[in-house]
Amino acid sequence: MSYADLLRGPHVTRLLLGTLVGRLPSAMASVAVPLALRQAGASYGFVGVAVGVFAIASAIGGPLLGRLVDRAGQPLVLLPTALVAAVGFAVVAIAPGSRTAVLAGVALAGAATPPLEPCLRALWPDIVAPGKLEAAYALDSASQELVFVGGPLVVAGGVAVASPSAALWAGALLGIAGVLVVATAPPARVWKAPARSGDWLGPLRSRGLVVLLTGLTGAGVAIGTLNVLVVHYAEDHALPGGAPTLLALNALGALIGGLAYGAVRHWRIAPPRRTLLLMLGLTAGYGLLCLLPAPPLMAGLMILTGLFLAPVLTVVFVLVGELAPAGTVTEAFAWLVTLMTAGVALGSAVVGTVLETAGPTWAASCGVAGLAVGALVILAGQAHLVPAAREETAEAPARAV
């Protein structure tokens, strides 16, 4: 089975492209919001606060919107949130000089970010054959790198043609366009989550899912570490394009790794053990970054670390789908996005302090530490990362009543 065969399947290309387009505003916000605020005369301190509010609002809103999708369906959540998020971006674009308006706008845009990622991952089992599911997840995890490359490029184009505020307007329109493509697709319109129990914990009542999400937070810490580390590295080394070049190479590695992983038809290693081995590979790659070699070797290490990231995410997607209790799959995928984002924020905050106090080698080790802790969590929880654990956990509330 080739990726071309997969993309020719009913609705696959439409849903994948719609999701990628609809997610562009989130990738654009991290660049467009700071540029718009700086053009309006805002301090770097306030820029940091605004970007932080957007990230926190997104992290909080994701699981809540995921739960709404599981209860009300995809179109009834995706369409209103796209409009509300667009209003948030429009507020920032119209009044970038007003602190109150900016904070309200980024909070609105972040909290109402349409849950396109978890919605697509909830749809994959319905639109591809069981034997193609892991390849679909691999294509999903690899293609999301295009969002992080394309988002800044759209901002750059908007700034070149008009202004940072124009880029925010473009983001608002792209978000609505992407959601319309997904929400009006037949699979999204007919999708319904199975009946769920009234347990307020939702997917978090699954021990295996909690183990998995906790472990993946360590991968988020590593990504946050890398985002800051490459900026410092680029300041000390002459290389074409600076830090963006290094991050682009990392994204290229993830794209290659994800597509290569999905091309394997049958894995002899079970998903729980596979997750652990891939996490260890990712940890080893980040360990080599501590050497901080000359730019040519550093470029190679950027690709190497990316190679393991998309495969890790792919097998995690498989496990999330298996471990999430009935009726909670969209919320489970939303929790994955939230905890990865929290890990990125933690890694970025910690590495900045370590860079100033202990130097780049110790700063690079922050990513290794995050991944090592994540791998240990997954190792300790291997017994829970099996479908049987899902059944036992889902039945636990019924037995307790």
From TrEMBL:
Residues annotated as domain Major facilitator superfamily (MFS) profile: 208-401
Source species, domain of life: Bacteria
Gene3D superfamilies listed in its UniProt record: MFS general substrate transporter like domains
Keywords annotated in UniProt: Membrane, Transmembrane, Transmembrane helix
Species: Streptomyces telluris
Localization per record: Cell membrane
The protein's name in its UniProt record: MFS transporter
PROSITE patterns cross-referenced by the UniProt entry: MFS
Membrane topology: Multi-pass membrane protein
One GO cellular component, as annotated: plasma membrane
One Gene Ontology MF term: transmembrane transporter activity
Major subcellular location class: membrane
Entry-linked Pfam families: MFS_1
Transmembrane regions listed in the UniProt entry: 12-37, 43-65, 77-95, 166-188, 209-234, 246-264, 276-294, 300-320, 332-355, 361-380
